[in-house]
Structures are given as structure tokens and as C-alpha cells.
Amino acid sequence: MLALRLHRFLGERFLRRRSTPVRGPIHLVHRRVYVLPTRTGLAFSIALLLMLIGSINYQLSLGYMLTFLLAGTAVVGLLHTYRNLVHLRVEPGKVEDAFAGGRAHFQLHLHNPSHYARVAIEVVAGDCAARCDVPPRAAATVTLALPAAQRGWLPLPRLTLRTQYPLGLFSTWAYAHPDLRALVYPRPDDAPLPAPQVVAAHGGVAHSGPGNDDFHGLRSYHAGDPLRHIAWKAAAHSQVLLTKVFSGDGAAELWFDYDALPAALGREARLSRLARWVLLADAAGAAYGLRLPDRTIEPATGASQRERCLRALALYEGR
User: Fold this and answer.
1) Coil, strand or helix: which one is 27?
2) 169 with 79: CB under 8 angstroms?
3) Candidates 1.10.3720.10, 3.30.200.20, 2.60.40.10, 2.30.30.40; correct CATH number of 2-182?
4) 287 vs 112, which has greater pLDDT?
5) Coil, strand, or helix at residue 237?
6) Do the beta carbons of residue 249 and residue 205 sit within 8 Å?
7) CA distance 154 to 182
8) pLDDT value of position 212
């Protein structure tokens, strides 16, 4: 549409100062609201001009009356189109984070302080748009689902609020840029969950099974294992130090180590693998920890642990 192209041109050329994100509510005062005729409005204006010329040439009283009646209707429509947008208040709402390749959802609240309804308000951010009606002295909520192409922070771009209500002859628009951003996590791959380790109370590694302090089996000796847990008879036969494992000695823990992944995997592939493991471990209710080159997150369970790990993966900028 002609009006849309013009207001995009104005926005890029002359309104760059409005592209700075703003914290808190944004009031669409008079100086923020712009009006231009649509393509239909221009055609309507040309038709009125031709009607006026014809009425003058042929001295048609009814032609004058019809021309000025339609012109007056257009002027009233212009007023209502402008009034439909001015004095709205835009407030930021909730943000739903996403995984790369999905969509991040931004919630916005439009408040109408006037005693008349605001109809067919369209909120546009990039290629995403949502439409709503705002009742008098009330608020309406719109949600924009923006594509999350890559991990990291995804800021909400500058918004365009526009309307052509009621006649479609004029387009009114305003810009708003709330300070909102979503966190985009790495896209999980399809790798299975690795086998858990069980950290024993004495610093060793055991296997968790049913019962309480029952003998469960043998494993290779690790430095720091208690001497009383070493299976000396088995070691004499195999010539390898083995440690007795008891079922009540520890609790299963999963460690997801960035550096332990195959060297052939690049950074993004490793982060995708770790994100997959975090989700699987959280779904299974297992305790898990995360080791990255720049930080370590100790094993834990629950939603807060999942958020900590996914956030660390989303914002990781190392090798």
C-alpha cells in the first residue's frame, strides 16, 4: 500500500530517534501519530476532483451537493481514523523464551483511556502482525510470535501501530519500541541421554539400586576410594584394583561436559547436544550438572536448574 510504503520511508529516514528502546509504558501522544491517504483515499480524492470539475462546467447544483457531502464524509473519516489511535498507551507484557528455529512470544498491553472503543488496531513487528479491538476505558492484549533464528538475546524490534478504521481512506500509524527481549536457547538435537554416574558419599562413584547399603557389584578403582571398599580377593585374581559398590552409598548424577563431547562437533553442535541432554534429564527428574569452559553448574533438579543450564548454553560465547 502507498501509505505503508510512505510511513516506512519516513520511519527509516526521519524517525530514527524513536528506535531507541523505551522502558515502561509508551503514550501515543499527538506528535507520535501520523496520517496519510491510502491508495483508495487518493482514488477517492481524484474522483471528487472530477466531480467538482463536472459540476462547475455543467452548473449542477446536485453535483455540488454530492461532491461536498462526500468530501465532508472523508474529513469526518479522517478525524475518526486519527482518533482511533491517538492517546493509546502501550505497555510491555510477558516474554516467552524459545529454542532456535522456533518462535519467541512477546506480549503487549494496549490501554484505552477514552470513553469510545478503538477498533481494528494492528500491531506490526517486522513480518509479524497482530490485530485487536480495545474496549473503552479498558485494555487489550496482543501477542507477537517472532521467529528465533539463532541462540542468544532476541530484542523486540520497533513496533508500528496502525489503523485504517472506519473508511479505509486514510492510514494512521505510530511507532513504539518497548524494551523487551527474549532468550533463545540452542536448538536441541536428537541424541539420547548418556548413562548416569553415581557419586558416593565418600567421594567415589557407585551405582544406585534398591535396598540400603547392599552389595551391588564391582567397578574399577578410583583415586580416593576408601581402602575398606577395595575388593582385595578379586584384585588378586584380575591383577586390577576393584572397588565394591553398595546401593545405598550414593545418588545418581548426570554430568554434561562440553569438553567431553567429540572434537568433530563444532560449538553450536555441542551446545545443541547439551541442550537436548538438559531437557531429557529434566523430564526424567534426574539430578544433573553442566560443565562449560567458562563455568560449572553443580548438579540439581527442577525448573530452576533447567533454566540455569539453558541460559548458560544460550549465552555461551567461548570456543
Assistant:
1) strand
2) no
3) 2.60.40.10
4) 112
5) helix
6) no
7) 5
8) 42
Give the C-alpha distances (Å, rounded to integers) separating 82 from 1, 26, 88, 290: 18, 17, 11, 55
Give the distance from CA 136 to its chain's centroid.
30
- Count of other CB atoms within 10 angstroms of residue 110: 22
Asked if residues 81 and 167 have their Cβ atoms less than 8 Å apart, the reply is yes
Give the tens place of pLDDT for each residue, 156-204. Answer: 999 999 999 999 999 999 999 999 999 999 999 988 877 655 444 444 4
In which residue are the cell numbers 569452559 written?
A: 293
Domain with CATH 2.60.40.10 in the chain: 2-182
Burial of 35 (0-12, 13-18, 19+ CB in 10 A): middle
What pLDDT is stored for residue 201 in this prediction?
A: 40
Mean of all residue pLDDT scores within the chain: 84
Separation between Cα atoms, residue 302 and residue 227, nearest integer Å: 36
Residue 285 falls in which region: left (phi positive, over 0), alpha (psi -120 to 50) or beta: left
Q: How far apart are CA 224 and CA 68, in angstroms?
A: 97
Q: Give the number of C-alpha atoms closer than 13 A to the C-alpha of residue 308, restricted to the C-beta side.
A: 17
Whole-angstrom Cα distance, residue 191 to residue 276? 7
- Whole-angstrom Cα distance, residue 206 to residue 216? 9
Q: Report the C-alpha gap between 44 and 40 in whole angstroms.
A: 6
Grid cell digits, residue 173: 500509524
Q: Amino acid letter at 182?
A: A
pLDDT band at 136 (very low <50, low <70, confident <90, very high): very high
